[in-house]
YopX protein (Desulfitobacterium dehalogenans), 118 residues
Amino acid sequence: MKLLKFRVWNKVSKKMHNPQAISFDIQSCNPFAVSIPTKSWDPVEKYELLQWTGLRDEDGTDVYEADLVLIDYEIYKVHWNESQAAFELISLKGSPAKDADILPTGKVIGNMYETENL
């Protein structure tokens, strides 16, 4: 079974968290509540859920959706492509998208929410 891991960006406090739990609706499978350390359940609308890709970078760091990864002197954003049901890398310079399978050759340098000036 594939390990599912998430981290969450709080849209109100502008902070990243590792959730204690995420509650999903049984019928629709959609998330509806998030619990973070030192806080009770909050509605999922307060958060941006960022899924782990299942991959690690060259340093062994877990790579999540919306992470910024440096590969061959170019910065890519990790993005979920709904139509292909796969993670892909979107260049911040406009180069063609790349498959996420090259993530182990890169280095996570931040994410779209916490990293400024990129």
About this structure: Residues 6-111 form a domain with the SH3 type barrels. fold (CATH 2.30.30.290). The chain has a mean pLDDT of 92. The radius of gyration is 15 Å.
